[in-house]
Each structure stands twice: as structure tokens, then as C-alpha cells.
Amino acid sequence: xxxxxxxxxTTKFISQEEDLILHSVLDINVKVLFIPAxxxxxxxxxxxxxxxxxxxxxxxxxxxxxEYKIDGMDENGFFVATGMDGLLKLDENIVPLNYWNKKxxxxxxxxxTQKGIVRKINVEKLNKxxxxxxxxxxxTEKFVFNxxxxxxxxxxxxxxxxxxxEDELIKMEFKNPNDKKTITIIRNDWE
Length: 191
What we know:
The chain is mainly β and 191 residues long. It is built from no helices and 14 strands.
């Protein structure tokens, strides 16, 4: 944001027997004249088995004191989850709204891991684009991602631009709906 680092997104992929556990921590802290202006924190653990999303355990803390505990798991042919809309009984094949998973872009609706709700999505594939990551130019696939608004949302769901290289998320951008500043997240482990 304004070419300043305002936070960190750390994602670890952990293999555990037949499961893949995705542990993500997003921590954003914006200060203006040393005074906190915006804070956001999210930590989630998704469990995938044989390429299928089977459970989530998460926590989200928004800047305005809204906090959500997100739980969900496959149960009797459904994905049963709790979040801001309470208990949900969803299709067991629902995919989480997590940008690392490029296959998510093919879905009609996804499970929002920040709030524990379902969102309808609309994805537009754009022309390929060369971008520079850590002094390396790579040709990426570029997409624009939009999602539906929930009545309990405090504002619009931001439009995201996503760049993938060989199915791996390399970069993402969105405009903060409050101040219209662009937030850019770029992989720093790319070689």
C-alpha cells in the first residue's frame, strides 16, 4: 500500500499422512503518524484429503471489533460449518475462498473462510501478462475475481486481480473499499 509493507501473509503447506494441511496467517496493521488506522488478522487451518477440502478451523478479527470463529467439516455427505450466519449445511464439495487454489476460479460459489459464509463468485480471465517478481520476468495468467455481498458485510466485497504462474498464485491486488488505496500482495519466496 503506497509502496509500504503493511502486513504479512504466511502460508504453509504441511503433509500429514494422507492429508495436506494449509496453515495461513494474515496480519495487517496500518498506522498513520504511529497511530493504528486499520488492523486485520486471520488464521486458518484447512485440511485437504485426496484433493478434497474436508475441514477448516479459523479465526478472523476485523478492525471494527468483529470477530468470527470459523469451523467446518465433512459430515454425512455435507460440509457442516459455522460462521457469522450460524450453522450451515453445505454441499460437501464446496471449495474455500482461498486464492492459492486456482481451481476455485471454476466454481459458482465458494465458502468464505474469513466469515464462514457462502458467496457466489464471478471470474473473468484476462490476457496473459508479464510481471516482475524478485528481478525475474514471468508470463502469468491474469484474472479478475468478484464475489457476492452478504447482508451483514460492512461494505462491498473488493474486486481482486489475481496473477498465476503454472497454477501458483504469484500476485494479487485489491482496492480497499474505505480509502480506495490499492493493496498488493506479492510472493517473496519466488526464485
